[in-house]
Design a protein that fits this description.
Shape of chain A: globular
Strand content of chain A: 15-25%
Number of helices of chain A: 12
Largest sheet of chain A: 5 strands, parallel
CATH class of the largest domain in chain B: Alpha Beta
CATH superfamily of chain A: Aldehyde Dehydrogenase, Chain A, domain 1
Distance between the termini of chain A: 51 Å
Radius of gyration of chain B: 22 Å
Strand content of chain B: 15-25%
Radius of gyration of chain A: 21 Å
Number of domains of chain B: 2
Number of strands of chain B: 17
Structural class of chain B: alpha/beta
Largest interface: A-B, 38 and 43 residues
Oligomer: heterodimer
Number of strands of chain A: 10
Structural class of chain A: alpha/beta
CATH topology of the largest domain in chain B: Aldehyde Dehydrogenase, Chain A, domain 1
Helix content of chain A: 40-55%
CATH architecture of the largest domain in chain B: 3-Layer(aba) Sandwich
CATH superfamily of the largest domain in chain B: Aldehyde Dehydrogenase, Chain A, domain 1
CATH class of chain A: Alpha Beta
CATH topology of chain A: Aldehyde Dehydrogenase, Chain A, domain 1
Strand order of the largest sheet of chain B: 12-13-14-11-10-15-16
Chain lengths: 333, 477
Amino acid sequence: MPTKKATKAPAKKAASPTRTTSAKRAATEVDLPSVKEPVITEEPAAPSGRLGIRKTYKLFIGGAFPRSESGRSYVVTDASGGFLANAALASRKDVRDAVLAARAAVSKWAGATAYNRGQILYRIAEMLEGRRDQFIAEVRAAEGVPAETAAASVDAAIDRWVWYAGWTDKIAQVYGNANPVAGPFFNLSSPEPTGVVGIVAPPDSSLLGLVSVIAPAILSGNTVVVLASDKRPLPAITLTEVLATSDLPGGVVNILTGYVEETAPHLAAHMDVNAIDLTGVTDPELATNLEIAAAENLKRVIRPSATDWTADPGTDRITRLLETKTVWHPKGV
Amino acid sequence: MAFEYAPAPESRSIVDIQPAYGLFINGEFVDSVDGQSFKTINPASEEVLADIVDAGPTDVDRAVAAARHAYERVWGRMPGAQRAKYLYRIARIIAERSRELAVLESIDNGKPIRESRDVDIPLVSAHFFYYAGWADKLDHAGFGPHPKPIGVAGQVIPWNFPLLMLAWKIAPALACGNTVVLKPAETTPLTALAFAEICQQADLPPGVVNIITGAGDTGRDLVNHRDVDKVAFTGSTEVGRAIAKSVAGTDKRVTLELGGKAANIIFDDAPIDQAVEGIVNGIFFNQGHVCCAGSRLLVQESIQDEVLTSLKRRMARLRVGDPLDKNTDIGAINSAAQLARIRELSEIGSAEGADAWSPPCDLPQRGFWFAPTIFTGVSQAHRIAREEIFGPVLSILTFRTPAEAVEKANNTPYGLSAGVWTEKGSRILAIADKLRAGVVWANTFNKFDPTSPFGGYKESGYGREGGRQGLEAYLAH
């Protein structure tokens, strides 16, 4: 029952106060010097007799939050090397499970009205806005950037959902068209989602970069399996809590944490994946090997590129994951 | 009763085939530097037509260098309106020489003159005319405010529609400001070489179009050439896969138009006579050498007998023979190798338990021929239901519900085209939505137009040719 889990799990996590503002934390948390706190804690918590509840960072597959089937985890540190969390270390089997979930979600998501998809993407922005401070803290911890930079990045990520939400019911209008063929035929070209898209998320931009690759893929009806940045995976997992409470059907977005060089080859070679976005692959040799693996079933490939995530995103990332279908019908009385 | 037809051959005196051809590089026909040679033959008679160069790596180098030079110095910086005028000229010359080109195509390829004359060559001219008009309107095409060309395009085309595939490749490439090196198929080089002459007649600047002939190795050298910016290929999925692997890790842009195994779905309310014409056109057009051929017939169980009876009656009227005869419906198989492939898969079809049927027909003694054939009792597991035969062989399967039809139609790694036959409009739209194919013909089949994008889903490749969408493959982004 993935949907049930999906609604339950985030509710539990939303109640966790560990990532709320420092003022609130100061009033509610106890300072225990023996426990090494993440840098997210901006100042030592005042002794108030309460031990904070930490979050277990798990995977997001089919709308549920499982641990890796392998039982493995790995240490995620902040920008200066301090311990942040033990994240799930996804395996080949997790990749397969995620592809299965993504495939199962395609027909419902692609079959939803564009208006409905737009509303859900907009709701993601709403949910993200409400947890803005939490994300600023997580992005700061992950990327080691000043508070203002993190805030700008989170704001841009929220606004990006709004930008792409509006595209769901417009892309077919600007990218599809009627064709005036030389004969008595009705002829219409419309874009359709390509299907299941594998994505290697940008390694550096832990939230804005991530949102910038997920949103354009799913808005048209694709479903995705995302390999989060292996060094900065925590904002991705917290984002799944937002996705799970935005009426996004389970399986539309699946996020795996772990080592990209371990999981990406399985995703690139998976015969039930239609396209792969290698944007986040930094090792050129790995990128080449992934593209070769992807050729086995002629996946559409987005090659790695250095991208300025703050720039106007345009429509390129939407259209490269679309197929054009052209339907002919004779005219006659 | 059957009517008897007197032979009505189109005269071949209109074509002038030279005994030997060079390569077309930098605006002139030149001898090969390091190539071999091979002979192109008439598949309907096995008569040798001409000696053709099997271009070597140095030849490819020279052609790419000529294209690069023309791109940097002339074509890439020429105003779009000027490029348009050259393309309009080419379109007009093709129309002027259309009968000659049709005859030449039928001689070299084996396709009926009725098709080369009425389908291939008119579409070639129309394709150039259509893209000519885009050359000075690219700012308005929806690919950014000032889209730029990519550079040198290496293009490899198949033998089933030789000049038409050339047009699909060259017209949009040139309209967008790219220069090209194109390799026609080994068995059908003659119309591409005639096109080279048309470029000369149009005073196209040297190096903008270069035609190099050869076989697989020449194509590989072209695709892998480091100074090629854009690769466009039409052909088998196997070769397409190899190309996709070979460009991995490069900056080359690629479009691939590959194989297909299209389902042609006939619902029980379809107009049977029209549907039967559509089935015949779907699989026997161009001897079935069509990547989007309707090679899997999915007929609703309740009308299976009626459709089959009608189809057999219609097939008995198909005239197989001399491609230059104006009454011929089905011409020669393009090559001995292709004939062997069709025979092999057909034999496997019988061995796996399907039932073959062909109308009685006298096939010529010389040349490569295969009678139009249908297989009944085909299951989805049969190889003739899964693999592209690329010949006049139809596999017939049945279904009961619309859901089953969609399920079976999509049960293939390919996704190039599909057909739907029903009188119910809402059903057409619903089924068309669910079919994973780039082109869906509803109550028609195998229709093509320069304004209409063509290309596949899944392992039928990526990118679109034709229409506004066809520009995208030749613009930088």
